[in-house]
Design a protein that fits this description.
single chain, 196 residues, Rossmann fold, six-stranded mixed sheet, two-stranded antiparallel sheet, 8 strands, 37% helix
Amino acid sequence: MIKFLNMSKIFLVRHGQDTDNAKGILNGRRNTNLTALGRRQARVVAYKLQKFRIDIIYTSPLKRARQTASIIAKYLSIKRIVVDKRLTEREFGILTGKPVSAIPRYAAKILHGHNIVYFLKGKNVEEFSAAYRRGRRFLKDIIRDHRSESVLIVTHGDIGKMLRAAFFGWNWQKGLKTPYFENTDILKLNSKTSIK
């Protein structure tokens, strides 16, 4: 487990539904926009977050995450938004843009998780161990730089699970076996429960 000293809170939020999510397409690093539902989801999650003090938002550079972060920031009057490329979704390689149903055809190795099939290996696919290390480095920097602040991280499903696993000191395999990280779910990293 990463030691977080006097830090108030870290919240993880997955972006709202984007156009690929709506079509059942594996997007990875495709730079897609939120759908109308995704924008509504972002407003709802902002409403849920208003009971917490949020000092700063970190977001993935991909549009769907930045749009979600902007909606939350506007609703909560948060002025500090930092884009960090380490929050970018895992590289899906050959599976990018393919339908979810194509995973068994293109993946060299898969893992059945909670409500999802994860592809572990495939041509040009970033392995979870690499995403885990990336997430761990990001968290260490956040904890060092924001010891007395509450931080909201707007990110994606796979890297979000790796961030949670790194925070609690789990390996990446255990991280994948935790409940699915739905669009605009909120995970509070100083407890092991998601906020509904």
